[in-house]
Amino acid sequence: MSGPAASTEFGLIDRIRARARDRADVLLGIGDDAALLQMPVGRHLVVAMDTLNQGVHFPGDARAADIGWKALAVNLSDLAAMGAEPAWCTLSLSLPQADITWLDAFLDGFLALADLHGVALVGGDTTRGPLSICVTVHGFVEPGRALRRDGARVGDDVWIAGLPGHAAAALALRGLRTDVAPVDGVDIEAIAMFEAALARPVPQVALGRALGGRASSAIDISDGLLTDLAHVARASHVAMSIDVDCLPISVSLDRTFNSDARRRLQATGGDDYVLAFTADAGLRAQMHSLPEAPARIGAVLAGTGVQAVDGEGRVWSAPYIGYVHFTDDGKTGMPL
Ligand code: ADP
Ligand code: MG
Q: What is the Cα–Cα distance from 182 to 319, expressed in whole angstroms?
């Protein structure tokens, strides 16, 4: 028989179960009707869920191991943005066929990242349908230390920790983002760097933990920096001013695009999974000792909305500002 090595629903679940790691607080993991978990005393439970659909969140030719990594990474990034310590996850898999080779590769990526953070896979669901992966993550946070979107205060600084724009650069180089074009002669190392950012984002879990009790608000950049900061501004009832020429940039991104293109990629690109946060200006000196040194990119002001300015203080605006599902073209007309 040719084609992929096939199995049944229960064969697939057995394969997943055989590879899922244990944790002392998992009283009952995969195998029963539900998992039984021991909460640590005196901490809040933090729960997040994200879905990846083929053709929407990853292309048809994406590698199974990369899909596995990213499905968990985007969820851990949400926990990081809450300042939570990850503990457990569940996995809902919708697969067009019971392909063992695909599942094993998917688990290679998924479980490699789970192991890095000591996260136990405690349950899930396995069904037949179009390729879609839905993950729920559970973590803990000390009461009062969660990094919420509604805590930004007038006078706070705005920070970003990491290099936004690489994932969007990968899409642009593939011709999937048509509003920006690279310069001639893109070098192969730059392409590899952008592709890695798109396929294997690294959730800033340690940074999120360190920001607890320091940052006044935080968010992870998934839909585009300006769009995501607009969520924070709205929730906090404040305005923000962001200098798009203060965004940290790699030599590769700087060399591959002209200045307007790189501003668009960095400010509106999305899929970055780096943390943006606000903090009292009195804490500036402490920011250098964080696990990942952030860059100061703007200020929280009275009012509403997010305004972007360039290095000369001129208002900078992009043709569109981030990704929104259920719009005709995925582009938002949402006011910042
Ligand atoms: P039920 O019919 O009671 O929902 P299932 O047959 O769906 O049970 O699942 C059996 C066990 O396998 C459950 O413990 C469930 O959490 C686990 N499980 C099913 N699919 C997955 C998956 N994709 N990843 C992890 N655990 C899974
Ligand atoms: Mg089930």
A: 17
Minimum-distance ligand to the CA of 19? Answer: 1
Q: Distance, CA 141 to ligand 1 centroid (Å)? A: 27
Ligand 1: which residue has its CA nearest to atom 16? 123
Indicate the burial class of 51 (C-beta count within 10 angstroms; 0-12, 13-18, 19 or more). middle
Q: What is the rounded CA–CA span in Å between residue 161 and residue 165? A: 13
- Secondary structure tally for the chain: helices H, strands E: 9, 12
Strands 36-37 and 44-53: unpaired
What tens digit of pLDDT does each residue of 130-169 get? 999 999 999 999 999 999 999 999 999 999 999 999 999 9
The pTM score is 0.94
Coil vs helix vs strand at 307: strand
Q: The tokens 């179960």 sit on which residue?
A: 17
Q: What percent of the chain has pLDDT over 90?
A: 85
